[in-house]
Amino acid sequence: MTMSSIPSPRQSPRQSPPHYLRHHRLRLALHRLKDGGGHPLLLLHGLGERSPATLPAEYASWPGPIHALDFTGHGESDLPRGGGYSCEFLMADADIALAHLGPCTVAGRGIGGYVALLLAGARPGEVRGAIVRDGPGLSGGGGAARSPYIPVPDLNQLAPPDPFAIAELANDVRPPSYASSFAMLASQHSDLDTPISVCCCERPPWLAAVMELLSLEPVALDQALQQYAAAAGAGIRPERESA
Amino acid sequence: METSEASIDEAVWTFPGARAPDRRRWVDASGLRLAVYEWGEPDATPLLLVHGALDFARTFDGFAPLLADAGYRVVSYDHRGHGDSDHADLYNWVADVRDMLAVADSITREPCLAVGHSKGGSLLVQAIQALPHRFIRFASIDGLPFRSPHADSAVRERKSSLTGPVIARWLDARRRSGELERRPGTLEELAQRRARMNPRLSHEWLCYIASHGARRDEQGWRWKLDPAIGVGGFGPMRVRWMTDRLPGFPIPMLAIFGSEKEPMGWDATADDLMPFFPATTEVHRMQDVGHFIHIERPQETARRILQFFGA
Fold first, then answer.
1. Which is one GO molecular function term here (chain B) (predicted)?
2. A24 and B175 in contact by Cβ < 8 A?
3. What is the per-residue pLDDT across A106-140, written as a single tens digit (0 to 9) for each?
4. What ipTM was assigned to the predicted interfaces of this complex?
5. Domain that holds residue B301
6. Mean pLDDT over residues B205-213, rounded?
7. pLDDT for res A242
């Protein structure tokens, strides 16, 4: 991984304001990191992070436009009151962006990688490949029952990121069979050969189960990006030719 | 026409045995304002009373006074998004438990008695397992899940719920959630709609609770319940995790069960759960009663709970 993929907590100001999307009562910030036509790439950040201010170098070869979403309680998206986070809700955040952008490839760091997997299972026709990358919140709170615990965050922390997001999403349980259900949905209903690409070193139980289920080997990010860009290119070529 | 509808609305604002709370106050739960209601003397022994999914504290108007009149300070509240409490941006199980503990903190930091109906019982089970020093005795009114909880939030899973269409439908609802609002009607119409979830409760009672659980605007009455709640859901939580911990339940429990299955019920019977109860759990079965045991049989339910708390 290159350093450029790790967002700094104090970033230089962005060159253009984000596009705001509405998720129920909350406003989500969608940043455009690269202009252009063609098949879009959507970046999802890790837990406690925010979208990068500039395009990370490792995505420079992507042929289409590149967008990055700030999850609820992160970056320039709204801070909800009183917590209540779940990865399913973050999936709905990403789905709002998907509705706005249309079919796209999704690459997520940490918890964003888990969300990319969930979304690939939920919207197998619209997510044209999900890429799981290392980053904060990739593991979650383990795969099985734990002693009941009621996280009470320190609300004196500066926000964003929302201290409730950190407290609740660092401990959410991710049963391997639950993640596998989404991987199976993606595999069964996507027309891509490999709808999930694992481009990370960390192997939480949910990810190990997904890799086992779909017989996935880890791949380099470049390779995953090329594969999805090529699949999208093949898909849109007839339209371009007719134009 | 409008006058007669209004007079019907006014006419059902009372119900035999129902009594409004003696006091009402607010609790700030991490920035959300929760409506809190009390019956009984302020210096009496406190008792936390927690409602179930899609309900609100005033559904205890018939039951809570029976406990209060026996010498308790009965404290209930509306969950986030329910009744008069704030609608939240996000809903999940742990936030509901944290809200409940904020209300408990507002009552006492000493260990206290607790009664929970339906989801309120399960929230208490988790809070008691996490913080056993905060509670003395716990009464569950059909508040223990076994196999399949009804999917009213995004943090629970039924085996059949995790299918592509169910997930897509939930996401579609999230995409539209900003446009959702409760359908207006007369109080009688709201009561008739609610009867689908509460088929065993009388129309007069449902009109009574509609008069507190709904508010009127130019178009009519609408339930106060956040429209974002109740569009189904799924998630990685397994009921089995709660059941498997019951043998180690840390305080005495009274588990009350009805005999009749209902749309809002947990589908958990005393027989299902008997193998999991420790010796400190008392089980009380009531015949010919559904999920809303304390509404169908307030006297018997209160009598049994008072006996348990007085022991």
1. hydrolase activity
2. no
3. 999 999 999 999 999 999 999 999 999 999 999 99
4. 0.88
5. 2-149+239-310
6. 95
7. 36
User: Distance from first CA to last CA of chain B, Å, rounded?
Assistant: 55
Q: What is the pLDDT of residues B152-192, one digit of tens each?
A: 333 344 445 678 888 999 999 999 887 888 999 999 999 99
pLDDT at A151 > cutoff 60: yes
Block residue for tokens 């509609």: B210
Distance from CA of A108 to the nearest CA of B (A): 19
- pLDDT tens, B279-303? 999 999 999 999 999 999 999 999 9
Q: What residues have CB less than 8 Å from B148, skipping those under 6 apart? A: B158, B159, B239, B267
Q: Which of A78, A82, A148 sits opposite B32 (nearest CB)?
A: A82
- Helix ranges (H only) for chain B are 2-11, 64-68, 93-107, 119-130, 164-176, 187-194, 203-213, 239-245, 270-273, 293-296, 298-310
* Residue B300 maps to a domain: yes
B29 neighbourhood in chain A, CB within 8 Å:
82
Q: What is the pLDDT of residue B228?
A: 87
Which of A81, A101, A180 is the best residue to mutate to test the B interface, defined by the most B CB atoms within 10 Å of its own CB?
A81
Note whether residue B80 is domain-resident. yes
Average predicted confidence (pLDDT) for chain A: 90
What is the number of domains present in chain A? Answer: 1
What does the alpha-carbon distance between residue B91 and residue B228 come to, in Å, rounded to a whole number?
Answer: 9
From A187, which residue of chain B is nearest by alpha-carbon distance?
Answer: B164
Q: Which domain holds residue A77?
A: 18-242
CA distance A219 to chain B (A): 27
- Any domain includes A77: yes
Which among B89, B155, B245 has the least Cβ separation from residue A81? B89
Smallest CA–CA distance, residue B10 to chain A, in Å, is 34
